[in-house]
Structure formats: structure tokens, C-alpha cells
Amino acid sequence: MPGGRLTQQERRQIAVGLADGLAYAEIARGLERPTSTVTREVMRNGGPTAYRADLAHRATERRAHRRRKTTPGGQPAAPLADGRDAEAVREYEETFTTVFMQSGLPKMTARLLAALYTTDSGSLTAAELTARLQVSPASVSKAVAFLESQTLIRRERDDRRRERYVVDDDVLYQSTIAGARSTAQLGEVARQGVDVLGPGSPAAERLENIARFVDFVSESIFRAADQAREVLHTRGHGPALRRLPPGYRLTRRSPFPQAAPSRSGSSRSGSSLPLTLSRP
């Protein structure tokens, strides 16, 4: 696949593909580019409904001009102090930001979360975030408030009494549990509607099916999060394990007592069953 930055013509092809309703992967194949390149390009320039090729091209030129101004003589960015390729790190952070945006996070919030996750310490102060993202303190404050409300980050004070914003394995666990609770609440409300609309009515049956589905999904998330936390991470003994503990393996197992066959007569394929940690 060709490398380098997107040309103006390629951006116009992306705009045409979006107008035709093509998926990012299909547009990327036509350009012989990675799907991630097209996804990042679209998401950082207005999204699939607001993408404009000429505006996107000009925005890219402005960003490149700003980077050249901060690098004397327009030379390539010097390697980071830890030896990493600064340009590769920047590109990866943009890709990570795009993924967060696709999950529904606003751009500023996604950028802040990506910055925290790609920092070795997993924590930054408000001043450090402001400098790293080159945004105003107010923008950082707003993004932090949202992420805290979603339990995606937490704050703590360091030895100098400065507030630091932190992401770690426990934050991810807590945010997963919070999401499962929110999902479970939907099931509770749906079940309340059964009595209101009258058991046996089509609407009540629909709500009961929603409640059963949501109950199963939320309980599965609770169990999986607890199991992963217990098996893959030993609290107080360093970072998460990089491989499964001895005696454990990942297997695909149906969560149902008996996998019911589909209307076509075939049961759910093994490759689509959820992965479960188990002992041989």
C-alpha cells in the first residue's frame, strides 16, 4: 500500500465514496490505503456527514505549517527522550483518538483520553495536558469533567499537592462496571413497563424480551469484568500480566445451557461464541 500523506485528489475520492454510502474499508481499498488512514481522515475533518475534501486538505496544510514552525528549519521531529519515533507516536495518538471518537466521545475528550493512555505514567496534570494538547485550560477542564462523570479517569494528588488525572487498569474496570449498571437499569425500566402495558400484550412482550436480553448482557459483563480483573491483574504487584496464568486457557463456550439452532437449522458458529477463561 502507498504511504505518505493523502493527496487532494485522494481526499476528493474519499468525499465521493462517502456520498455514495461506501464503507471506510471499501474507500480504502479503492485508494490502496489502510482503512485506519481513511477513518482517521474522515473523523478528524467533520465526520462522514460533514466531510469536505477541500476543507480537509487546507486544514491538513495548516497543521503541517504549525508543526514546521515549531521545528527549526522544517527538519523532521527529533526522537523523543525515550527513543520513540515522535512522528509515529503522533500518528498513533491520532488513530487512538479516532477510535474514541467513533465510540461517541467528543474530539477534545477523545484527544485527552488518548494522551493519558499513551503516557507511560498514565497520569498528567492539567498544565501538562494543556501544553501537550496545545489547548486552553478551559478545554481541558471541560473534557476532564466529562471523563470523570463517566468514571473513565480519576484524579489524585501527587507529592507536590498537584492534581493529576489518571487512567489505569482499575479505572477501566470501574468504567466497565458503571456501563454495565447503566445497561442493567434499562432492563429494570423495561420490566416496569410490562405491568403498565398489561402482561400478554404485544408491547409488554416486547419489553419483557428487552429486559431479558439486557439482564443477560449486563450480568455477563459483570462476571467477565470481575473474572478478568482477578485473573489478568494482581493488585499491588505491578502491571497486568502479559500472558495467561499457568493452567488457564481461552475457550469458546456458549453462555446458554443449550445453543438453540437458528431458523435455518444451523446452530451458532463456534467462531462467534464468546471467549471464556477456563482451566483445562
TrEMBL record:
Low complexity compositional bias, start-end: 261-280
Annotated ranges, domain Transposase IS30-like HTH: 5-45
Pfam family, one: HTH_38
A Gene Ontology term for the protein's cellular component: cytosol
GO molecular function, one term: DNA-binding transcription factor activity
GO biological process assignments: transposition
InterPro entries: HTH_MarR-typ, IS30-like_HTH, Transposase-Integrase, WH-like_DNA-bd_sf, WH_DNA-bd_sf
Domain HTH marR-type: 103-161
Top-level taxon of the source organism: Bacteria
UniProt-annotated stretches for the region Disordered: 58-85, 234-280
Protein name: MarR family transcriptional regulator
Organism of origin: Streptomyces solincola
Taxon lineage: Bacteria, Bacillati, Actinomycetota, Actinomycetes, Kitasatosporales
